[in-house]
Every structure is written in structure tokens, then in C-alpha cells.
Amino acid sequence: MTYQWIKTFHVLFVIAWMATVFYLPRILVNIAEAGDEPAVRARLVLMGRRLYRFGHNMFGLAAIFGLTLWLGWRVFPGVLPNVTASLHWIDAKLGLIVLLLGYFIWTGRLLKRSEQGGALPSSKTLRVMNELPVFLLLGVIFLVIAKPF
Fold it and tell me: Who contacts 14 (Cβ-Cβ below 8 Å, separation ≥6)?
């Protein structure tokens, strides 16, 4: 039952982090379209900053539970199974996670740049970039379900 609880918490925190990854660029689009309305921009930047902090916390918790699932069998061999068993799908999954994390950090830097008065990419560019994590997440889900290699 321990394995199921750890997996449940991992999935919960991944979902919470991905909600942040999907919504933060949307806030950036709204900031880019706010124009010269300082009150609106200030509110959106505040929302973005809080969301970014929340996303960092959710990623940290997802990573802790994910590492426990991946390597916990070495510490608790009688409790946790070896879920990767020398398969390499986990390597590809972790590569996609690194790309998602890089994307998340990039959006955070754009938010910080905007907060400091810097220019953002156009709202059209931000909208296109907002779709990128969907495809990365699709790859992660496929790798976890299919374990193709």
C-alpha cells in the first residue's frame, strides 16, 4: 500500500505543477496585452509571482515522490518495487521533464523581466509557446504508460 500512496502523491503534485506550467504563460499573454494599464499589470504580475512560487513548491514535492518511486527500492527493498528494472524509458521521461522544467524557468524569467519593466515577446508568440508543454507532457504520459524501451 505504501507504493500506491507514494505514486498517488507523485501524480497529485505533478498535476498541480503542470497546471502552473500551463497557466503562467497565459498570465504572460495577459500582461503583454495589458498595455499601459499599470493597475492591471501589477495585479497580473502579482498573480504570476504567486503562481510561480506555488509551481516551484509543487515541482519540488513531485520530484521528491518521483525519486522515491524511482530509487526507493534501494532504500526500502521490501516495501517499494523496482519500477524501472533497467529499462530506459525513464531516461527519456526524465529528459522531457528537464525540458519542461527549463520551460517553466524561462516563463518565470519572462515574468521577472516584465516586473522590472522589460519587454515581453508578442502575445502571439507567447500563445504559440503556451502550446509547447502540451506536447512534452504527451510524451511523458506515453512513456510512463507504454514503457516502450
Answer: 62, 66
pLDDT in tens, 7-31: 999 999 999 999 999 999 999 999 9
> What are the residue ranges of helices labelled H in 35-146?
38-75, 89-115, 123-129, 132-146
Query: Is the pTM here over 0.85, yes or no?
Result: yes
Check residue 147 and report its DSSP letter: -
Q: Which of 13, 4, 136, 138 is nearest to 83 (CA)?
A: 4
How far is the C-alpha of 19 from the C-alpha of 108, rounded, in Å? 14
Closest residue by Cα to residue 18 from 130, 143, 146: 130
